[in-house]
């Protein structure tokens, strides 16, 4: 049975939209009561509380469709996975007022870190076409001010304005709850995010199957980001997973190199995950980044020794336990809506790795 807490979203949305339209007509008696709706005409508020006309493309802005070719190999370097995947992501943003937005994000995938569906499996005659498209995230986004916002619902796994790194939460995931975000806070603190909710990577990716009750929250995260000096940026997270009673921090550092080294690399990016109960570093990564026009290349190494639950939250290709080296390549085409992404991870500790290597190549179209 679908969860009733998320079912309330749809009638609530309808109520807000109809109420907004009624208030708009009351505040603007000269507004045409029966406007002609065209491709570029949707009746929502703008900042002056009048009916706003905006392009239909804004409704699905940042939606993407991605094709990926994935190859995995075992310890004997035999190919165990060879398949073509697809990930359509539909992002819908509906402005209810000048400050309040309704957001819905739907995509394929059957788990927290798997947002893909198989099109073709090359090592067998079986072909798997996507049948698991559903709503993963659905939430309200309210701008308290230019530098502060609150979100409530099935949220994105990472806070607004954050970047995706090897040891951060997978962007295909979610957090069910409440998040307050602030930027331009104070001197060396540029951003603060406080998230309270429910987080279990083993639950259904369908938002309507999950529970939304902040009074039963089992997850809290406090994230701070800023600049130590003009060359060094940082992100510091403190996390508590109540479902398994685990607490850990993640520190991310981004160092811009001096002029003498710029011919080789542009920056050094590193991460450290510390278990707060033992004080041990349970995961770490370090990468050298070079940008050459539309091409960005990163080569690095990582250690992954976290608990199974923490690894289930982790960025998919880097989730494997053990020590590994990795490389990523991103190429932005002249048409900025297209990009090529290639990632490879090779295990260097065969005693703990189940998969010796994994490489995937993706082509993404952004709308």
- Which runs of at least 5 residues are low in confidence (pLDDT < 50)? 1-52
CATH superfamily: Porin
Given the C-alpha coordinates, what overall shape results? globular
Major sheet? 16 strands, antiparallel, barrel
The overall number of domains is 1
Indicate the structural class. mainly beta
The CATH topology annotation reads as Porin
> In what order do the strands lie side by side in the largest sheet?
3-4-5-7-8-9-10-11-12-13-14-15-16-17-18-19
Number of helices: 3
**So, CATH architecture?**
Beta Barrel
Q: Under the CATH scheme, which class?
A: Mainly Beta
Give the N-to-C terminal Cα separation.
34 Å
- What letter string, H or E per element, gives the SSE order? HHEEEEEEEEEEEEEEEEHEEE
User: Would you tell me the overall average pLDDT?
Assistant: 83
What's the β-strand tally? 19
Give me the Rg, rounded. 22 Å
Which percent range fits the helix content? under 10%
The fraction of residues assigned to DSSP E strands is over 45%
Kindly describe this structure.
There is one protein chain. This protein is mostly beta strands and 367 residues long. It has one domain: Porin (Beta Barrel). It is 8% helix and 50% strand. It has three helices and 19 strands. It has helices at 4-7, 9-27, 308-313; strands spanning 44-45, 51-52, 64-73, 79-95, 100-107, 117-121, 134-145, 148-156, 174-186, 189-198, 219-229, 232-241, 246-256, 267-275, 281-292, 295-304, 322-332, 338-347, 357-366. The chain has a 16-stranded antiparallel beta barrel with strand order 3-4-5-7-8-9-10-11-12-13-14-15-16-17-18-19. Strands 1-2 form a two-stranded antiparallel ribbon. β12 and β13 form a beta hairpin. The longest helix is centred in the N-terminal third of the chain and has 19 residues, at 9-27. The two termini are 34 Å apart.
């Amino acid at each position: 049975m679908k969860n009733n807490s998320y079912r309330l979203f749809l009638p609530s949305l309808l109520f807000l939209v109809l109420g907004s339209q009624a208030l708009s007509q009351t505040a603007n008696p000269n507004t045409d009561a029966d406007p002609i709706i065209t491709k570029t005409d949707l009746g929502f508020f703008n900042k002056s509380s009048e009916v706003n006309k905006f392009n239909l493309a804004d409704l699905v802005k940042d939606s993407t469709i991605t094709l990926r070719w994935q190859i995995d190999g075992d310890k004997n370097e035999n190919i165990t996975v060879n398949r073509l995947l697809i990930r359509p992501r539909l992002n819908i943003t509906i402005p209810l007022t000048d400050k309040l937005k309704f957001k819905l994000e739907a995509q394929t995938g059957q788990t927290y870190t798997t947002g893909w569906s198989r099109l073709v499996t090359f090592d067998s005659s079986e072909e798997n076409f996507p049948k698991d498209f559903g709503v993963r995230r659905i939430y309200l986004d309210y701008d308290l001010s230019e530098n502060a916002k609150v979100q409530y619902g099935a949220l994105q796994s990472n806070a607004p304005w954050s970047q995706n790194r090897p040891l951060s939460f997978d962007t295909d995931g979610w957090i069910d709850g409440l998040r307050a975000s602030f930027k331009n806070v104070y001197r060396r603190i540029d951003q603060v995010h406080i998230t309270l909710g429910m987080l279990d990577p083993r639950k259904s990716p369908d938002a309507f199957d999950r529970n939304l009750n902040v009074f039963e929250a089992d997850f809290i995260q406090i994230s701070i980001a800023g600049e130590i000096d003009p060359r060094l940026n940082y992100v510091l997270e403190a996390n508590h997973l109540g479902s398994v009673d685990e607490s850990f921090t993640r520190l991310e550092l981004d160092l811009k190199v001096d002029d003498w080294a710029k011919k080789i690399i542009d920056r050094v990016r590193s991460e450290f995950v510390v278990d707060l109960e033992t004080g041990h570093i349970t995961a770490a990564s370090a990468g050298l980044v070079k940008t050459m026009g539309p091409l960005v290349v990163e080569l690095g190494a990582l250690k992954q020794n976290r608990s199974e639950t923490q690894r289930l939250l982790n960025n998919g290709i880097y989730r494997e336990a053990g020590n590994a080296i990795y490389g990523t390549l991103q190429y932005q085409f002249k048409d900025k809506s297209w990009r090529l992404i290639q990632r490879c991870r090779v295990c260097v500790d065969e005693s703990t790795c189940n998969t010796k290597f994994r490489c995937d190549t993706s082509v993404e179209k952004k709308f």
